[in-house]
Amino acid sequence: MLTGATLTRPPAALGRLTAVPGRLAADAIDWETPIDRSRWYFCETLTPLYYAPVYRELEPHHRRRYNQLTGLLANELISLLESEFLQAALTAVESSDARDGELLQAVRRFREDEERHASAWNRLNRLSEPGWYAARRSRRLVTVPPAVGVLSRAIARYPVLFPVVFWIQLVQEERSIEISRRCMRVERDRIEPRYAAVYAAHLHDEVRHVQIDRHLIERFYRPRSPIVRHMTARLFRTLVSQLLLTPGRSTAAVIARLVEEFPELAQRAPRIRAEVRALTDNDEYHRMMYSRKTTPVTFDLFDCFEEFHQMRHVLRAYEPRQVMCS
Predict the structure, then answer these.
(1) What are phi and psi of 325, to 5 degrees?
(2) pTM higher than 0.85, yes or no?
(3) What is the mean pLDDT of the chain?
(4) Residue 7, SS3?
(5) 181-220, pLDDT tens digit by residue?
(6) What is the DSSP letter of 323?
């Protein structure tokens, strides 16, 4: 049953979006001072294990190292999204329709921003673990199944044909905003200064990117036929439920590394893995990942497009509302 009555506002004007200067500049970050390993890299409430009962039984140094490993993983994931998936999709959009000059200018700026962002995340990981990320190796914890890699590259190259790309962009960019906001709220004496600086600058750019994502959905998704839109919503639902929502291989890699560094956790490892898998049914974890508080624009657009009301079957925090969409 649809409830409520809200008005979803149109996105900001493209000219205004392209006029805003980018904030995440690698030159403004201190890359020389060694990383402070006594600090956290990430907001505690963003880590999956935080929502498992066993987390409260871990020693402070276990929690801190788990937090650092999760921060490294988050950097890898954001870099992967920005340097491969988004770069391919935005490049394809740039060559799709020369008549949309203002939109293409915004997309070009979006793509350039993402190049700078990916460089910053990779550089942050090299500073944090130089032995791991030597020779510009960018992934140590992220594992992408071959079939998933093939599918993601295919849809990224043809975003106009597969408009699900724009929905993935939107929800993940909005998740990035929430990650930055939470990390910026961590006490200054607790979070590593370079991480705090990168998150603060990243937030500024991602807010603008979400608005551009909305323009892309209006341009390349809204006019599509009902069949294409329903197929898009179904594919998006599958991708979110299987890849983006619950902890998977990459989280397992973090836990494996934690146990490797702290052998005393070996006996607890099966319980840790079981409780992380159980997060599929954890309402608090779902609200942290995707909710009207953490991904408000995405949820508002779900409301606007009836075919996305099915997301209520995947995202426990989503309940469709009756809205007026501009």
Answers:
(1) -110, 125
(2) yes
(3) 89
(4) strand
(5) 999 999 888 999 999 999 988 888 898 999 999 999 999 9
(6) E
Q: For each of the domains in the chain, give its residue range(s) and CATH number, in order of start.
A: 3-23+37-325 (1.10.620.20)
Please choose, from the candidates 184, 205, 167, the residue with its C-alpha nearest in 3D space to the C-alpha of residue 297.
Answer: 167
Enumerate the H helices of the chain as residue ranges.
14-19, 60-80, 86-94, 101-128, 146-157, 164-185, 193-220, 226-239, 249-261, 269-277, 283-289, 296-304
CB 130 within 8 A of CB 136: no
pLDDT confidence bin for 27, thresholds 50/70/90:
low
Tokens for 92?
């394809």
Residues with Cβ within 8 Å of 226's Cβ and at least 6 positions away in sequence, in order, are 307
**So what's the pLDDT on residue 4?**
47
Give the dihedral of Cα atoms 165, 136, 186, 272; nearest 10 deg.
Answer: 80
Single-letter amino acid, residue 176: S
The two three-digit tokens of residue 232, written as one number: 């898009």
Q: What is the number of alpha carbons within 13 Å of residue 320 lying toward its C-beta?
A: 18
Contact yes or no for 214/301 (Cβ under 8 A): yes
In the prediction, which pLDDT does 28 show? 74
**Cα angle for residues 104, 326, 311 (degrees, 5° grid):** 85
Tokens 């093939």, residue?
A: 150
122 and 24 Cβ atoms separated by less than 8 Å = no
